[in-house]
Structures are given as structure tokens and as C-alpha cells.
Amino acid sequence: MIIREFQRKPSMSHEQKEAPLHSHTPLWESRPLSEALGARVYLKMEAFQPVGSFKLRGMGRACQNACSAGAARLISSSGGNAGYAVAYAGRRLGVPVSIVVPTRTSARARDLIRGEGAEVIEHGEAWDDAHAYATLLSARVGGAYIHPFDDPWAWAGHATMMHEAASDGISPEAVVVSVGGGGLLCGVARGMAEVGWSKVPILAVETRGADSFAAAAAAGRLVTLDSITSLATTLGARTVAPEALAWAGRREIIPWVVTDRSAVTACLRFADDHRVLVEPACGASLSAVYERAAPLLRSQSVLVVVCGGAGVTRDLLEQWDRQAAEN
Fold first, then answer.
1. Strands laid side by side in the 40-45 sheet
2. What is the pLDDT of residues 211-235, one digit of tens each?
């Protein structure tokens, strides 16, 4: 493989490097979702981050930490949102970025990453393959490896969304999050502990075929799926982060698995209700509310992290709808 030489971009000032790269996102009370569930439903609109997903919170924090420690190059592995967030952060911080993606990564995701000036390298069929290659590449060329979900700095970044929600004055009786590799779950659990919501249950939602957290919670140990068969590819980590399973031993976290059909239907319904497009990975959490998941029926107020997703268009949503109907 040929390693490209990157032209160094102008560096940010110290103050700029310390300032968060993410935005304070809106908190909405959703009438359509509240009517569907029969309880007050609040939406933390992470789909409105500059890169379209919550990933900028954690990836931005991790990238800033790496650059503060002297990193002159950033390397990550991601099939979409995390890679896009690292590419965005690298551009803002003035350092070159290489993102290793699996072959299943969509053309749109690749274009978004390249659009931030990052190099895209394809390797392997699944994220796990891309991750293994990216760690080797990082060691070979001396760049800082930014893990897309298993990184304490990323968890600290994701935790900020719970601080924002608390500062906006709500006190939910349940929180709903989608789980892929578990980075969002770790950050949300940490943030909830920091704002005094340790006794509030978390509904951890996955799609069938990408349910590594539910499998681990049931087994009481980490479980590696044979493959990712869900079309929600951004939930596609075959093994969840160990810290995600550790949090399940510290507080109430309820695994919940939905079908691709439910996730895509929720995306379409959410687009009609709120005029916002999200990926099936986000639709998974929304479907738990629309379909009145049993663990939520005991709550009078629910907070849903609308994690978003940059890799969604109207055409792709229609394509996913056809695929889900065939399965």
C-alpha cells in the first residue's frame, strides 16, 4: 500500500483546539411520539450535529485529546458516521486523516469522508477487519488511532448530551439509545451518572443481526457474532465494547432487539412526523417508542437520543424499505 504525503493545514489556535467541535443540540418534545407511547417523549436531536450524528461529540473529544498529546496524523476505522466525524475533526484541527472502511461502506459515506479532505482506504468485509488493519497502519506510520467506540475520551464526549438534556430542565423516567459498538451507550450511562440519573433505566436498542450487546448481556460475557446481517450497517460491530457490558452490571440497562422492518418503518414515520431523515440505526430506537416497547410503558416521560446518521438520503430510505420488506 502507498502511504500518501499530506500537506499540513494551518493549525488552530490553542483556544480553538480546546473549544468543543460539537454543537449544543435541540431538545424537542414530540407530540407524535408522545401520542404513540402514551407518555411524554423528548428527543435529543443529535441528527443536527454538523456531521449529522452524535459521533462528533466523542470523536471530536478524542481527536482533540490526541492532537493535544502531539499527534500529527489521525487514523480511524469506520463504515460511516465515526469516520466522517474524525475526518471533520481532523480538518478543523489542521491534521491529515486516513479512514479505513470495510467493503460494505456506501458510496455516500465514502464521499462524505473524502469531502472533508481525508484519505479513504478500503479493507475487509466488516468493521472488525477495517479496525485490525487501521491499528496496524497507525503503528506503521505513527498516526494516532481514534477508536470509533471503545475510547474513554469518546465516552466523555458523548456524556455531554446528557448534561445538556439535564440543563434543559427535563427529568426522564427512561432513556432510549441505539447500540452498535457501545460507545454511545457508555457515554450516555456515564453522563446520566454525572447528572444524578443513575436510577433511570436505559433501553438499549439493536436490530436483529447486529445485536452483539443483547447477546453479551444474555451470556454474561462478550459474544462475537459470526457476521452482521442487519441492513443497519452503522450498528455493525460483531463484538460490543467491554465497557458497555460492564455498565450493564452497574445500573439497569434493558437490551431490546427490533427487526430491520421496524427500524426502517420508524425512519419513514419519523420523516413524516418531524421532517428529519435518519438512518435505520437511529430508527431502531424510534421504533421502540412507536411500537410501545413493554419496558417503556411504565414510564411517564422518556428521553430518546435521535442519534441521526449522515449516510441517509430519500433514495436510500426507499431502497432500505424495499430490502426490509423482502426479508
1. 27-29, 40-45, 301-306, 174-178, 202-207, 253-258
2. 999 999 999 999 999 888 888 776 6
Closest CA relative to residue 241, chosen from 155, 125, 301, 133: 155
76: left (phi over 0), alpha (psi -120 to 50) or beta: beta
pTM (2 d.p.): 0.91
SS3 313: coil
pLDDT at 18: 75
Structural domains in the chain, sorted by start:
21-54+151-326 (3.40.50.1100), 55-146 (3.40.50.1100)
Query: Three-state secondary structure along 171-225?
Result: CCCEEEEECCCCHHHHHHHHHHHHCCCCCCCEEEEEECCCCHHHHHHHHCCCCCC
